[in-house]
Design goal:
Elements lengths: L2 H8 L10 H30 L6 H22 L7 E2 L5 H13 L6 H25 L2 H5 L5 H13 L5 H4 L5 H17 L5 H5 L1 H18 L13 H5 L19 H28 L7 H21 L5 E2 L1 H10 L4 H14 L3 H8 L3 H21 L9 H24 L2 H8 L6 H4 L2 H11 L2 H15 L4 H4 L1 H5 L5 H13 L1
Antiparallel strand pairs: 1-2
Length: 501
């Protein structure tokens, strides 16, 4: 029996199946619960980096869920039509943080968070237009023969590795036990008690965060944690939150565009496309169907680009396919597109509820830090898992992956030691030959933003090396990926039937 037949036998609900509405609602919410942590982590990281006022954070978080719901409905209906949840991307987080740092350094006075957010929005919108072109002009589909697991593995792994020093992790030393408790609970539920209960298998992250939050809330009410201290939960702010939040395009203002930030964000968009490329293959394999055709890949990437334009206009950090959701398919066997659409509709409504956003904002930094350690570690593992297709006895493959990972960590660390784009620009003025070029503000800012983005550095290094060092297609893992690829006509005819119906 083939691997595809094995997978098809495991699937409880196939892509085109429609379970009863009540069951679909529960299964759909379950799909979204697997990525709630990640979809909350990104806005909280951005809010912290921006210095966003606490009163604004609930609306900011709610906007991410509204965008996630709309993007998922668009992707599952008109895009690649896979049961993949769309949400806030970690792949675009590192360049976003670099952009925010540069903008805030050049705006020492005034509402720095608003200026930085508008520049971030503009960078995402313009970079996303490029993604739309890459998708609907079929560029990624044509380039797929040049993109192997050897490239995808270090690129995705660096998304998690680059975020190990997130403020919520490094600043939680004042309450390290709460961070450790959160992480310990997630490990306990997911690894040790997973076989004891279906709930532990499905919701280890959610349960870990909820239990830690309840403990922190009890200690806050008891007076152990005073207002303003690490671990304090402000329950009164939840009751005072508005019932409904106004969320709409351009709610923070008109996006601003600067070339250096756009180029830096293109690195994140490129990493997002590579991540989604791998996700499409993973969800097809777990759903028991053929690997994605060129047409399906192009439709998916094109729609992700459109939804990134929408996300930029709404004022979030972008949108991409979620690996956590794919993991849920492998765990539960629920691969129904209809189920994911139901879950997306629920999240879309929840995003407008003020109580929900404010409740998320009360999660203390140490708890968020414990969540990050688990989530970022999972992202690293998802990236490295792509190496299962690669011949790891090949010295060229080991070399490419190793160099990509090391440069993806070393160069951003160097940029961090430099301190800022302005300092980098001044330091480059005296460099022989390249000094006049690298000393220019636009060039220096561009190099600084890209150099500060681990997955951009590692991905570029891996792409160049993997396509220039001699190696067979079997060695690079391309043959196994393409063995079960669906025919382009199959996706096109199915999509046409959907549009007619």
């Amino acid at each position: 029996m083939s691997d595809r037949e094995d997978r098809a036998g495991f699937v409880s609900y196939g892509i085109d199946d429609k379970p009863p509405l009540g069951t679909s609602v529960l299964l759909g919410v379950q799909h979204y619960l697997t990525m709630v942590g990640a979809n909350v982590a990104v806005p909280l990281i951005l809010a912290g980096a921006l210095g966003m006022p606490e009163s604004v954070i609930p609306r900011f978080v709610g906007t991410f869920f509204v965008v996630s719901g709309i993007a998922t409905l668009a992707q599952t209906t008109f895009g690649n039509r896979y049961p993949i949840v769309q949400g806030a991307p970690f792949s675009m987080l590192a360049p976003a943080l670099a952009v925010i740092g540069v903008v805030q350094a050049s705006n020492p006075t005034g509402p720095a968070w608003e200026a930085a957010l508008l520049q971030l929005q503009g960078a995402i919108v313009v970079a996303a237009v490029v993604e739309v072109a890459v998708g609907y002009f079929g560029l990624l589909g044509r380039l797929r023969t040049f993109i192997s697991p050897v490239i995808i593995a270090p690129t995705i792994a660096l998304i998690g590795l680059a975020l190990f020093n997130a403020p919520q992790v490094t600043s939680a030393t004042g309450n390290w036990w709460l961070l450790g408790l959160t992480l310990g609970l997630i490990v306990l539920f997911s690894q040790y008690l997973g076989d004891a209960s279906r709930a532990f298998q499905l919701f280890p992250v959610l349960l870990g965060v909820v239990v830690a939050w309840v403990i922190a809330a009890v200690l806050s009410v008891a007076g152990v944690y005073a207002p303003g201290t690490s671990g304090y939960v402000d329950l009164a702010s939840v009751a005072a939150a508005p019932a409904v939040m106004p969320i709409y395009p351009l709610q923070w203002g008109v996006p601003r565009v600067e070339t250096a930030y756009v180029i830096g964000m293109l690195a994140g968009v490129a990493a997002s496309m590579l991540e989604s490329f791998g996700d499409y293959h993973a969800v097809a394999r777990l759903s028991g169907i053929g690997a994605p055709s060129e047409e399906r890949i192009n439709h998916g990437i094109g729609m992700e680009g459109l939804m990134n334009v929408f996300a930029g206009l709404m004022g979030t950090g972008g949108s991409t396919s979620y690996s956590e959701n794919i993991g849920a398919i492998g765990l539960t066997g629920v691969a129904s597109r209809y189920v994911v659409q139901i879950g997306a509709a629920v999240m879309l409504v929840v995003g407008f509820v003020g109580y929900f956003g404010q409740l998320i904002a009360t999660i203390p930094d140490p708890i968020v830090g414990g969540l990050y350690v688990a989530m970022f570690g999972q992202i690293v593992a998802v990236g490295l898992s792509n190496l299962e297709y690669v011949d790891l006895d090949s010295s060229r493959n080991v070399f490419v992956v190793g160099i990509a990972l090391f440069t993806g960590l070393a160069i951003p660390a160097y940029m961090g030691n430099v301190g800022s784009a302005a300092a980098f620009r001044e330091g480059m003025r005296g460099v022989a030959v390249l000094g006049p070029v690298l000393g220019a503000r636009a060039v220096a800012d561009t190099v600084y933003v890209i150099g500060s983005t681990g997955m951009a550095v590692g991905g570029l290094v891996a792409f160049v090396l993997d396509n220039t060092i001699e190696g067979t297609r079997e060695e690079r893992g391309l043959v196994e990926w393409e063995q079960a690829t669906e025919d382009d006509a199959a996706f096109t005819s199915a999509f046409d039937r959907f549009l007619r119906d």
